[in-house]
Amino acid sequence: MVSREQKRAVLHEKLQLLRSMTNSHALNKTSIIVDASKYIKELKQKVERLNEDIANAETSSQQPQLPVVTVETLEKGFLINVFSDKSCPGLLVSILEAFEDLGLNVLEARVSCTDNFRLQAFGGENEEEGDMIDSQVIKQAVVQAVKNWNESNNDG
User: Of 2, 13, 115, 126, which is the most buried if we count CB atoms within 10 A?
Assistant: First the structure.
């Protein structure tokens, strides 16, 4: 038969273990248990946040990455680069339509649509239009063309 002293010693040892595991600085039993309860709640919240992060990462990895668009202003025109690590059938047409809507003349272009999509185009403003085009306006138009292309491909 286990004596009361032995039971107390075992309980005290377990409380000290609980105190050390929960980083509690409390000295009495009640405070140690309260600290342990708070610690468990914090751990549950961390687990919930991690599960949300995992779920968000999984959904974002399922969404296709949109092509990267850069526009540089040159002395006489713009250098427009669009790149995606996968093939993008129909994207070139969408981008060229955006250029046309802006009144941007494509003076020279290099395009690869085999394993990935790469467009490097040198464009100049249509001098008959007379309006100055800003590089940000071009970038926004190309990004919008990419988004429209992406939505039309995901719908069908």
Answer: 126
Give me 101's structure tokens: 């809507």
- Strand ranges in the chain using DSSP code E only, listed in sequence order: 68-74, 77-84, 104-112, 117-125
What whole-number distance in Å separates Cα of residue 155 and Cα of residue 150? Answer: 9
The pairing of strands 104-112 and 77-84 is: unpaired
C-alpha torsion sign, points 132, 134, 137, 142 = positive
Q: Using one digit for the tens of pLDDT, what is the confidence trace for 101-151?
A: 988 888 899 998 888 889 999 988 766 655 677 888 999 999 999 999 888
Residue 40 identity (one-letter amino acid): I
**C-alpha span between 78 and 122 (Å, rounded):** 6
Measured from the Cβ of residue 18, the count of other Cβ atoms closer than 10 Å reads 16
Q: What is the pLDDT of residues 48-83, one digit of tens each?
A: 888 887 777 766 666 667 888 999 888 778 889 999
- CA 36, 40, 41: angle at the middle one, nearest 5? 120
Please state the pTM of the whole predicted model.
Answer: 0.56
